[in-house]
Amino acid sequence: MAESEIPEEYLAGYARILAEVAATGRRLTREELTSRRALGEQAADAGHGLRALVSAHLTAARAAWPAGPASADSVLAAVQQVTDAFAEGFERAQRQAVRQEEAARREFIDDLLYGRSDLGRLAERAERFGLRLSHAHAVAVAEGPTAYEEGDPVPRQVERALISRFGDRSILLTTKDGRLLCIAPGPQDEVLAHFAKQAHAATDGGRVAIGRPQPGPGGVVHSYEEALNALELAERLELEDPVLRAADLLVYPVLTRDRQAMAELVLATLGPLTTARGGAQPLLDTLTAYFDSGCVAAEAARRLTLSVRALTYRLERIHKLTGANPADPAHRYMLQTAVIGARLLDWPAQDL
C-alpha cells in the first residue's frame, strides 16, 4: 500500500510521545513500547507493508517535529524506539502467520495423501494451495540416503529448480515420511520428469517413482500410492533404474493379485532348490542374474563374479533339481515368472 493509504490508527499517540520526549528528554515507557508492538502486529494482520509503515512513521515524525530547542538526539532516539518496537510486533505477527500457514499446509497434505477428509471440502482447501482436484493429477516420490523435512537444503534446491523452469504452474512440492513429493497436473508430465531429474541429482543418486495421472479429488492419493508401491517393488526386485514409472510396472501387481496362486507356483517350481547344499538362495540369485542379463551366460557370470563354467554348473544343477531348463524357451517363462514371484513374496526368507 502507498503511504497515503496507511490508516492513522497505526500512528495513534505517536505525535504525543514525540512531544513529551522533546519536552522531558525521557525514553519510552514499557507500556508505550508494548502498545507499539501491538500496533505492529495489527498492521501485519491487516496486510500492510512494513516499508510503507516505516515511511508513514518517518513522515509523521517530520510533521510533529518540535519547533523549540528540544534535543534532537532525544527525539531521534524516540523515533528509533517506536519504529523498532513497531517492526518487532510486525515481524512477530508475520512469523506467527507463517507458522499457521505451514501448519495448515501440512494438515492439508496429510488429509490429501491419506484421503481422510471430505472430498468436497478437500477440493475447496486445495485451491488455496494451487491445486484443482477436479482435474487429473500425478504424484512423483523421491527417496534418498537420508530423510528430508520441509525447509531442508535438498527440498529447497529441488523447489528452486522447478520454479525457475516452470514458474507457478499449479505445482505442490512437499515432504512426507522423509521423502520428497511433487504433485502436478496430469497432462504436465514434463514437470514430474524434471522433478525426477533434479531430485535424483539432489539426493545423491536417490530413486524416484512417478504414479499415473488419476482424476478427481481421490486421484492424488491413488497416484501417490502407486508411486510408493513402485519404490517398494524396485527395492524388492533390486531394479536399477533411477526413475520408475508405475505405468511400466503394472505387470507386477497383476502377478501378485492372486497371492495364493503365485505362492503355489513358486513352491512347485522353485521349492526343490531348498534341497541344494547352501539352500535355495544362491541358485535363486543365479536365475535372477541369468534372466536379468537376457539369458547371456557370460554377462550373468560377470554379475555374480563367477566363471562361466561355474555359472553353467549352477544352471545344470537347477535343471536337475526342478526339471526345468533355464536355457530352454519352453521352460524359461515359467521359471522367470516363478523367480519374479519369489522376489515379490520375499521367498525363501519368508515361508509361503
Automatic annotation (TrEMBL):
Residues 283-339 form the PucR C-terminal helix-turn-helix domain. It holds the Pfam family HTH_30. It comes from the Bacteria. InterPro entries: CdaR-like_regulators, CdaR_GGDEF, PucR_C-HTH_dom, PucR_C-HTH_sf. Residues 115-233 form the CdaR GGDEF-like domain. Belongs to the CdaR family. This is Sugar diacid utilization regulator. It comes from Streptomyces caelestis.
